[in-house]
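Possible race condition, two jobs.
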Amino acid sequence: MNNPVDNIKTVFERQAFGICEWWGEKLRIRSSNIRIFFIYASFLTIGSPLIIYLIMGFVMNLRKMVKRQRGSIWDM
């Protein structure tokens, strides 16, 4: 039987926007360290990094939608 905490963790990792992974690739840092930073910063600053995280997720999803909709010039 799976641990409920592990189930919640897998759901969040699958449903997350991929922000931590993206930053990890750009900065060459493990994504788990970036996630820990967001968690600690959220506790210390009463949630403002969480708002920034959600905005970054919205922008990344918007960029993916624009790239997906915009085809090449020859697709007409």
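Job #2 (started ~2 s after job #1):
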Amino acid sequence: MIVYVFLFSCVLMLSIGQVLFKKSAGLLSTLSNPLLLVFEPVFLGALFLYGIATICWIGALQFLPLGRAYMFMSLAFIIVPLLGWYFFDETLEMRFVFGTVLIVSGVLLTLK
């Protein structure tokens, strides 16, 4: 069961990291030099989350085959748009709902 905690934590951290990268992209226009982005806390937070997510991913791969574990990464295709809708007022269409059903069905089919 701990393997699924690793997997879901990984997907969640990568998804939150995407939100932080989007916020970082918005900061670029305020910086005198784009390279200064590496000193911005939001950008550093995204990199930190990606690092911790990588550790969770490696933990999960100890117990599952790569092909089966990777199916869980598709959950980010649901979480990231939901976070974009929540934090950036991005639009979600009915196609998103249908796609979400297909993705969740696929992930459930790969569970044992």
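The chain has one domain: 2-110.
Logs attached separately.
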